[in-house]
Amino acid sequence: MTLNNTITLSSTDASQAEQDFKSLIAEKDVITVIVFGNTAVSQQAIQSADVRAGSAPAGFKRKAVWMQDTSQWDTLKKYLKNGTIAVSSVNPGNLIAIGVSLSDKIDAEVPTSKTPDFIVMELAFVQASQE
Fold this sequence. Notes:
alpha/beta
């Protein structure tokens, strides 16, 4: 699977994953969707998010992040801020993805009850960009 607009966090090197995540969050003017897990649904979600990240209708850069190892969330969540969704309420076991705003706030979530098609993943980007 070719992902042109996605950063795939290392599942085997936690420090590399953290470094990659930190550098993405440090980038200015990027709207991000983080996809959790490595299931068939997660793979569909990351493919859809990757395609939607290639489009920047509001002029802001978009990126998708694939966090295949959801245990990394405990370490990486400290780089994000509360938005319309509190960082502490994010449970990768109940979500397919979250949307992160330009100011690193969590402002969108995709629950596991949704099918992560292009529309759902576009909405995650849009909701994250409305801050």
